[in-house]
Design goal:
5% of the residues lie in helices and 46% in strands. It is mainly β and 300 residues long. The two termini are 42 Å apart.
């Protein structure tokens, strides 16, 4: 029975193509050095001794880099990541990593993986730009602490998470983005704060929470296989909605009035569905989950 449910839930994700306070990024480090063409900054304010997933016991510290040769789009193959949009032009990555100077066995070596990638950033990540797309991928073991990234708020962004969910929370948090965003995550919550869209989010196991600000731009698609979908829109936001929970309820604020479509409503024995216009119609909005509730609330 469990296998049947798992297959059905994963099929839901494949079929569909708020308020959370974000952690405060650390203060920018002062001194910098160059590693493989990338400016790397070292901070000694956060150094401590801890055993990592890789089995080493070297000291760790926060390091910040500026991504070189930035393209017109950004692809992040990372999870357990906090991303904040800002009005600058650079992509800045801050992560807590092991100091190689404290690992005698790793001296003179670099982290590599079976995908042909190697660490060229000093943070255990590979950074490359091809065809106008800058791709940042984790090369070695997932990091214990969340990765903090600041990016231009109007830079189109794609995030593919899930690799490190077995080792950390796998949470993806996104704040203050006014460009097109696409997120896929295997395991872990996706939290979106102060975003405008267009947005496409798919999560196999985890909740999707989103708070939109004006001007809201569609299309918007938030899909969770096993988890809740919780979205907040501006009070007078109008949309053409396709909302469905196969095994759960749909909750909506009084400010949102729904007009059913001319189509015959779907029969869902253990769930609920709403398809039609909300507040007179407008942007296209899809909210779906196979196992969980859906919440449509007003932005406060």
């Amino acid at each position: 029975m469990a296998l049947i449910f798992a297959s059905a839930l994963q099929a839901q994700v494949n079929e569909s193509v708020e308020g959370v306070a974000a952690p405060k990024p650390p203060n920018p480090p002062k001194k910098a050095r160059a590693v493989s063409g990338v400016a790397v900054s070292n901070s000694t304010n956060f150094t401590f001794n801890s055993s990592g997933f890789g089995g080493s016991n070297g000291p760790k510290s926060w390091k910040e880099i500026k991504v070189p040769n930035l393209g017109s789009k950004l692809l992040l193959k990372l999870d357990n990541v906090y991303i904040e949009g800002y009005k600058g032009k650079d992509v800045l990555i801050t992560a807590k990593v092991e100091d190689n100077e404290g690992n005698d066995r790793a001296k003179g070596l670099r982290v590599v993986n079976g995908s042909g990638l190697s660490d060229n950033s000093g943070l255990g990540m590979n950074i490359k730009t091809e065809g106008g797309v800058t791709e940042i991928s984790m090369v070695g073991m997932p990091l214990e602490d969340s990765i903090r990234i600041k990016i231009p708020m109007d830079l189109p962004l794609t995030i593919k998470g899930g690799r490190g969910a077995m080792f950390n929370a796998g949470v993806i948090e996104l704040k203050d983005m006014h460009a097109e965003v696409e997120v896929s995550n295997t395991m872990g919550n996706v939290n979106l704060l102060n975003v405008t869209g267009p947005i496409n989010v798919k999560v196999a196991q985890g909740d999707v929470t989103a708070k939109f600000v004006q001007p809201v731009k569609g299309p918007i698609s938030l899909v969770a296989a096993m988890g809740a979908v919780d979205v907040a829109f501006p009070k007078n936001f109008g949309a053409n909605v396709d909302v469905k929970s196969a095994m759960g309820n749909i909750y909506a604020a009084d400010e949102f009035q729904f007009e059913k479509s001319a189509e015959e409503p779907q029969s869902i024995p253990m769930g609920n569905a709403v398809k039609g216009k909300m507040n007179g119609g407008g942007q296209d909005v899809i909210l779906k989950t196979s196992l969980g509730d859906i919440y449509i609330r007003t932005q406060k």
